[in-house]
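Students often ask why we bother predicting the structure of a whole assembly rather than each chain alone. The short answer is interfaces. A chain on its own may look different once its partners are present, and contacts between molecules only exist in the joint model. In this exercise we take two input lines together and write out one structure for the complete complex. Read the inputs first and try to guess which parts will touch.
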Amino acid sequence: MTGTAGYRLLLAGLAVVTALLFVCSLLVGPAEVDAMTSLRALVSDEGGLMTLVMREIRLPRAILGLSIGATLGLSGAVLQGYLRNPLAEPGLLGISPSASLGAVIALYTGVAAAFPLGLPLAALAGAALAVLVVRVMAGTDGGVLSVILAGVAVSAFAGAMTSLALNLSANPYAALEIVFWMLGSLTDRSMTHVWLALPFMAFGWAMLAVTGKALDALTLGPDTAASLGVDLKRVRFLAVFGTAASVGAATAVAGAIGFVGLVVPHLLRPFTGSLPSRLLPASALGGAAMLLAADILVRVVMPGRDLKLGVLTALVGAPFFLWLVWRTRRRMV
Amino acid sequence: MRLDLKSLTVELGGRRVLDDVTLSIGEGEFVGLVGPNGAGKSTLLKAIVGLLPAGGEIALGGEAARSLSARETGRRLSYLAQEREIAWPVPVEDLVMLGRAARLPSFARPGPQDAAAVARAMRRMEVEALARRPATELSGGEKARVLIARALAQETPLLLADEPTAALDPAHQIALMRVFADLAGEGGAVVACLHDLGLAARWCTRIVLLDAGRIIADGAPLDALTPERLRSVYGVEALFADRDGPVVHPLDLAGRTPG
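Now the answer. The structure tokens for the assembled complex follow.
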């Protein structure tokens, strides 16, 4: 393998940037306290109010930013590698729309207001249901096309049901709450959310991380990969269920956050020699860095207005993606 | 390594694509698998690799292929698919290295012997100069040679190649036939689907002629390829000659007078 040194440098650089952004995320907020005091309040037990702010508000937010960003980056890279399509992203399997639908149902029926974990649990149930439908529809032949088609159908249905909930919502405040939730945000999440989502995400990461070598072989197409000893059914199981566990949990606590899973693998692929196995860790770190940065931006750009994270990632992500398409097209001509 | 097929039968969508194929191929053989479109050549190779459900028995080196793990199968045979697929702009040498994946445990990194195998394969296919180029930016013929190098890097005793000469210019077609003949000479076994009867007749040690899923002829090139069989199976008239070896060249459709 060549370029190993450059690749290690890339991973180290991304890790440093992610760590810095994580600390930065801890230091940004409406409570204007200097950095040293904030960090001291985080680790000491006698800080009073500031300790509470750091541990109950900023720390969960930073942890969720880090882990959800990593989830989106990693699952995006795995799905692009598995489907051999640079346009694949975590939403493609219908998992984020279905998790959103679960959350919307919780908001609509009042389950979300009845007890604090009602909403994320309903979202997780939505994600689980989606993955079961995709699994059944996709059959047992290990094919890729049926997975995509099943995902598209599930996405469309979940989207339609979400629209129906909005349509029938008698209470405009409930409708507004649904819309706001769907925009995606990390505001006012607690450690409870972290403990709910993190185990699922970690489980999903473990499943996604072991697909690297199989995805490399899949670069040569499914037949050649199978002849190289790749078990196509196992790869599909890991990619689909790993995405469901991690992205389902991420959507359950933060809503649908688009474009990170699409753009980050694209952006980093050229620096990793395009091999999927090398892209996975880079894309996980890159996703974490991008989401932490975006979550810092929403707090800095419009402090009083509660700019939604999902809005910002799409706002920055879409033009950036256009630029990527433009650059790719110019190279192809 | 011996390859033994006994009563191999494959049905796809209710249609019998391979019908009772029994065949044994030993070390040192370069077998040309020929036959018209739809005869079942690619299906036969895929069934041997285990990509299609097949009835009958397949044995690799005397052991039932079904009883072998996927990794062990990858140590015994390499397969060049007909589809020349390269999904990502991976540098050529990294792509050829993928041929070593079957030999490595899950998280092992390639070692010096893997690098040496990749270098040998790239030298054989004359693609060393392309080592750092992204594989997706190569010409059709260059891509084909890189993918053959990928299969050679696997260094298996049995190589199955589906239309390996497609997209190659005449010099590279002949060079490839020489590589396969050399592999057979070194004690390997090569089975290649070929459409070019001239190349098959001249370079293969043995020809297996398939038609409608059955073996029509099996033997030395000129024993298997006869004017009558080319007429009945392909529907073509061919020139047969000898110029330091057999020359077979299709001239016209059977039953038509030239000109």
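Check your guess against this: The radius of gyration of chain B is 19 Å.
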